[in-house]
């Protein structure tokens, strides 16, 4: 797998030897996402699957089929007491992410966590501070950064050839909704479709624009077609947010669960500048297939198109950096900046 722009951008804070030993990793939560990340890290020979922990016996059994040499342990604590474990990959429900990440970092383990890292900015800050204090590499599975399509979009935005970028349109409509009850309980999830789907798009836009200051946020949240406030104890299944960024850039976000979208998903991140536009968008309602397009007036140029096996790439990149001996990276502050925007969308 080629290095991504993100790998290069975040650089190396230690040795960059290509002969580094594979880091020994523990995997906490091996449902379908956790198992996919585990299998991709193993497939790319980026890490050694040493320990597996999951509260559901079936999940652990399935994971052990893919990693028969791994040891099944009952909990995170069991992995933290193993000096041989260098990193923990966390794919548990959102309510546990911050606490489990902090525990792992305080125990001297690097962490790769599913999004969101925290249910709010306070939780997110605590995790980033723990990583900084213990000089450990912290990664979050913001996987769309690693799609070939978004890498192309990033290159165009960074090149300056779009002139002044004055508008960014972000869309993530999912015709389905989560199948786990905790997603619909705000105390457990931290919110609905915004923290589940919108987090990816807000991250993509701010990352591409070098994280400008977010000056103002206005939002509307809906549940089953009715406007809601977070104090009502419901999570939103549709949200719209307008954000004003430093440098006179307007950013618009729309995201949803269970929307009658006419297809499985509508996903896009589009940047409009005085000299043209560029977009990443999904193809034929797919959750996995993306194109990158460059716009010149009425003309469209395709920059890249499927297939692209991007699933799990973020975890592979983290494991490779860990193999190179990298410690804390100040780029982890980006997770806090995204969490601040989400809190503003939620009126927190």
List strands and helices in order, with pairings:
Elements: H1 5-10, E1 24-28, H2 32-43, E2 48-53, H3 57-66, E3 71-72, H4 76-80, E4 87-90, H5 94-106, E5 110-113, H6 121-133, E6 138-140, H7 148-159, E7 165-174, H8 186-189, H9 193-208, E8 214-223, E9 226-228, E10 238-245, E11 249-257, E12 265-273, E13 276-282, E14 290-296, E15 299-304, H10 313-323, H11 333-345
Helix pairs in contact: 2-3, 2-10, 5-6, 6-11, 9-11
CA distance, first residue to last residue: 40 Å
Q: How much strand content do the residues show?
A: 25-35%
Sheet with the most strands?
Answer: 9 strands, mixed
The percent of residues in helical segments reads 25-40%
The pLDDT mean sits at 94
Sheet with the most strands: spatial strand order: 9-8-10-11-7-12-13-14-15
Structural class by helix and strand composition:
alpha/beta
Count of β-strands: 15
Unreliable stretches (pLDDT < 50, length at least 5) are 6-19
Notable features of this structure?
single chain; 348 residues; alpha/beta; nine-stranded mixed β-sheet; six-stranded parallel β-sheet; 11 helices; 27% strand
């Amino acid at each position: 797998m080629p290095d991504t722009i993100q790998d290069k951008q975040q650089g190396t804070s230690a040795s960059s030897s290509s002969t580094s030993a594979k880091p020994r990793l523990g995997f906490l939560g091996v449902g379908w996402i956790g198992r996919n990340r585990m299998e991709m890290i193993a497939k790319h020979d980026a890490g050694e699957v040493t320990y597996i922990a999951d509260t559901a016996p079936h999940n652990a059994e399935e994971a052990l089929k893919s990693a028969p040499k791994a040891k099944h342990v009952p909990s995170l604590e069991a992995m933290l007491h193993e000096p041989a474990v260098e990193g923990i990959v966390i794919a548990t429900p959102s309510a546990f992410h911050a606490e489990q990440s902090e525990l792992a970092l305080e125990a001297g383990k690097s962490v790769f966590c599913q999004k969101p890292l925290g249910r709010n900015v306070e939780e997110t800050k605590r995790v980033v501070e723990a990583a900084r204090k213990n000089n450990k590499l912290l990664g979050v599975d913001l996987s769309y950064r690693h799609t070939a399509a978004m890498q192309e979009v990033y290159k165009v935005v960074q090149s300056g050839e779009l002139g002044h970028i004055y508008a960014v349109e972000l869309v993530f409509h999912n015709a389905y909704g989560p199948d786990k009850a905790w997603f619909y309980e705000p105390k457990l999830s931290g919110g609905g479709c915004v923290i589940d789907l919108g987090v990816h798009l807000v991250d993509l836009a701010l990352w591409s624009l070098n994280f400008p200051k977010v000056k103002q946020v206005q939002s509307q949240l809906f549940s089953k077609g009715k406007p809601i406030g977070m104090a009502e104890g419901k999570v939103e299944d549709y949200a719209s947010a307008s954000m004003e960024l430093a440098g006179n850039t307007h950013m618009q976000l729309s995201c949803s669960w269970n929307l009658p979208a006419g297809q499985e998903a509508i996903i896009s991140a589009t940047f409009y500048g005085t000299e043209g536009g560029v977009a990443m968008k999904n193809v034929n309602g797919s959750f996995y297939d993306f194109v990158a397009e460059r716009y010149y007036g009425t003309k469209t140029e395709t920059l890249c198109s499927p297939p692209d096996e991007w699933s799990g790439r973020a975890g592979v990149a983290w494991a490779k950096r860990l193999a190179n001996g990298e410690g804390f990276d100040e780029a982890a502050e980006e997770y806090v900046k995204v969490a601040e925007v989400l809190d503003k969308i939620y009126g927190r």
